[in-house]
Prior knowledge:
Elements: E1 5-13, E2 26-37, E3 42-51, E4 54-67, E5 70-80, H1 83-88, H2 90-114
Antiparallel strand pairs: 1-2, 2-3, 3-4, 4-5
Amino acid sequence: MSEREFKATFYLDLEEIAKVTGYLSRLRADMRFRYEDEGGNDVKVLGTGRVVGAKIGLTIDVKVTPSERGTLINWSAEADLGIIQRVLGEDTTRKVAKRQIELLTARLREALNTGIN
């Protein structure tokens, strides 16, 4: 793995969002990410991985700019969940994505407020 790559494992708890039981109530996503410097203050993070054997992809674009109160981080993400989205359905997929974004944003805010070491 190069210095521009990292691995991440996500656990998605579907039990309280969808009416699923057994092994589908908590999904493990193993992903490998690579980031590309887009020049200036732009970075693109590309991820590929698998969830319950199905291929998934995630692209995150990040732009960092100075602001009056510090630093402004604008980002957008695009996910390709393939068969997982078809199995869970659009509504459940959106609920899971919203919850994961809320958790990620909260953790990032905590890290920025306490300082990243």
